[in-house]
Write a structure and sequence with these properties.
mainly beta; 5-stranded antiparallel β-sheet; globular
Length: 657
């Protein structure tokens, strides 16, 4: 819920705290650097509403690439403030849209420069303020709900308001699902008079008019689209301080309430079929965060935070779509600058950013830095993507990430669920781990990747990096190399069932690779024990548990067999312990998750393809890529080496096709 702090117009206590002052951040075991890191994420934006009528809203920008924060980013770039009580923001088409409630504007910011490209006024013809509250997008249009009972449709090209649709009283939030707009009507400004509203408006986007009101309960607020044609809304009751909260499930196909859950929720965030619910009890002054399974309608964990971290006044919650880490903002007493806390999905604190701003209420994430001109990928968000967008097979080997969203799994998932979530994470360029040796993934493109002579044809994104202090004939850092194979849809059935060809990397045919390698992993007994393995060379060892990942088992819960067998080529161990730090040295070229994404050697050429006998093969194009972890090595506190994938890009994508 985006808060209305109407009674706290007292003294503003400004804290001299830098946004990049970090607490409780663990050292990264793969490079020993004391930096803040979140997989697949380049930067994030934090919107802080300030205090009502004090005109002190701020926008902070944090760069994971430079480990630096600009706590008042908008003012720094534009030499003016955002305005009074900024309530919401979202990203669309290379621009950041910020809804400023009391100032009655929507500020539109160019993500590449940080500069304002326009303000959309929400002042009515009679001069009254509409008081815009929240924003959502669909099909090149921005939709903004306002407290005057309207939703505005804005053309994102011209930044002009095209039309208004009337909805219920004091709409609080909105979302798009199945081609319709759902608007939660709070009636919150009238609660002491005529009482709160109880409805969610359904707006037909083509006709742009309200076609139905769904009664959901008193004072509906935060509303989000979920999986399987669902919409979820929190209701706050007649008086928010009395705590009469519920979580309501709407079926978007019937536009009817399907279930009401008696869960205390002031704000929530969704990660596939899991919802993170936070609540603040005004009677006891205590906060809580729990995990709710949207598929089963049951609480998965009563306490999300597992390491004892205390949050005095949670103010917003968000899930990073690229890592599934959970971010919670801390507002303290609403009059001092708040903090931003990042938790892993297991509920353990990863890091804290102090002093991000006064009453931080919205957090957004990007996988590309604003310093990079990525406009070609964002000008039309609804256009087909150059990135592989479908996962056909995904079989991670035992790993410390097993049975978490990093391997596309949540409790109760079947294989179809897993592949669906893996495809979704691939489209979002979220990280997927292949696990220890042999774990693999097979993906497909919406458009074939052509073989262009002399050029790189596709790129595989991972999370490898360089350690500037590590160099032994080749760069060292966190390389976890994976072997890459390609296939063309020769039979035209859209399935990866044609011959596979390996891309011969720099180690092909050398003594640094072992051919016809086979490894077997065994289900541990008990389940939370280390995972034993043996290979066809007479070796044995373990995928060891570690202190960073404490879930029940490192063996996949969805696999019924008590053993998993993987075959392929094995590359020589590439990690070395240097001065107490494990360094993974990169092979020269031709392997996934081997060089940083910014390096040329994260790209691949189809002309490297060879058949099973090592003969060169000419492929005019390919439709599928397979990657598997090629190293079988335990690296101390880093754990098993495991190839990670965060996207595969067709470098010759034709957007006009």
């Amino acid at each position: 819920m985006k808060k209305k702090i109407l009674g706290l117009i007292g003294i503003f206590l400004s804290l001299a705290v830098a946004c990049d002052d970090l607490e409780d951040k663990p050292a990264l075991p793969d490079n020993g650097q004391e930096t803040v890191h979140d997989d697949g994420t380049a930067e994030m934006y934090v919107l802080c509403e300030g205090l009502f009528n004090l005109n002190n809203s701020t926008l902070a920008r944090y760069s994971f690439e430079t480990d630096a924060c600009m706590p008042d980013y908008f003012r720094t770039m534009n030499r003016r403030g955002l305005g009074d009580t900024a309530n919401d923001m979202d990203i669309y088409g290379g621009k950041l849209y910020v809804v400023v409630n009391v100032s009655s504007t929507v500020e539109v910011i160019d993500l590449h420069t940080g500069l304002s490209v326009g303000q959309v006024s929400f002042v009515a013809e009679d001069g009254s303020s509409r008081q815009p509250r929240a924003v959502a997008f669909d099909g090149g249009k921005a939709y903004v709900c306002s407290y005057d009972g309207t939703v505005a449709r804005i053309d994102t090209a011209s930044l002009q308001v095209e039309a208004l649709a009337e909805v219920g009283r004091n709409p609080e939030d909105l979302c798009v699902q199945d081609g319709k707009l759902y608007v939660s009507n709070s009636g919150g400004l009238d609660w002491e008079g005529i009482g709160v509203d109880r409805t969610v408006s359904v707006v037909d986007l083509d006709a742009f008019r309200e076609v139905k009101q769904i009664e959901v309960g008193p004072n509906p607020g935060k509303i989000l689209a979920g999986q399987a044609h669902t919409v979820w809304v929190a209701t706050y009751g007649g008086n928010i301080e009395e705590g009469d909260y519920h979580l309501v499930k709407i079926n978007a196909q019937t536009d009817a309430v399907e279930a009401v859950y008696d869960e205390p929720v002031m704000d929530f965030a969704i990660d596939y079929n899991l919802a993170y619910l936070y609540n603040y009890d005004y009677q006891t002054n205590r906060s809580s965060v729990k995990v709710f399974d949207l598929a089963s309608g049951k609480v998965a964990r009563e306490q999300f935070i597992t390491d004892g971290t205390k949050i005095e006044r949670p103010y917003a919650i968000a899930v990073n779509p690229y890592s599934s880490n959970v971010y919670i903002t801390e507002a303290y007493n609403y009059q001092v600058e708040g903090d931003l806390l990042c938790f892993a999905p297991d509920g353990k604190l990863m890091f804290r950013l102090n002093g991000v701003g006064l009453n931080p209420n919205t957090v957004l994430f990007r996988d590309v830095s604003a310093s990079v001109d990525d406009s070609g990928s964002e000008d039309n968000p609804d256009a087909p993507s150059a990135f592989a967008d479908k996962v056909f097979e995904y079989v991670p080997a035992p790993t410390q990430f097993m049975n978490t969203v990093t391997v596309a799994y949540q409790e109760g998932f079947n294989e179809e669920d897993r592949l669906s979530l893996a495809s979704e994470r691939l489209r979002k360029r979220s990280l997927l781990s292949l696990g220890a040796y042999g774990g693999y993934i097979v993906v497909g493109f919406s458009q074939p990747v052509p073989n262009v002579e002399g050029a790189y044809d596709f790129k595989i994104y991972g999370n490898a990096n360089y350690n500037p202090n590590a160099w032994q004939d080749r760069p060292g850092g966190s390389a976890e190399p994976g072997i890459v194979l390609v296939s063309k849809d020769e039979n035209g059935n859209g399935m990866p069932d044609d011959p596979w060809y390996e891309l011969a990397g720099s180690e092909y045919g050398k003594d640094t690779e072992t051919r016809d390698y086979e490894i077997t992993y065994y289900r541990p007994q008990p389940e939370n024990a280390d995972v034993r393995w043996t290979d066809n060379l007479g070796n044995e060892g373990y995928v060891y548990r570690n202190e960073y990942h404490t879930q029940n088992s490192y063996y996949p819960e969805w696999v019924e067999d008590d053993r998993m067998v993987f075959c392929g080529k094995r590359l020589k161990d590439n990690a070395v312990e240097e001065n107490g730090v494990w360094v993974g040295y990169a092979y020269d070229w031709g392997y996934a998750d081997n060089h940083p994404n910014s390096e040329e050697m994260s790209q691949f050429k189809l002309e490297w393809a060879v058949d099973a006998d090592g003969n060169p093969v000419h492929l005019d194009e390919i439709d599928f890529v397979k990657v598997y972890t090629a190293v079988n090595q335990y690296a101390g506190r880093v754990g098993e080496l495991s190839t990670e994938i965060a996207g595969i890009e067709n470098l010759h994508f034709d957007a006009s096709n």
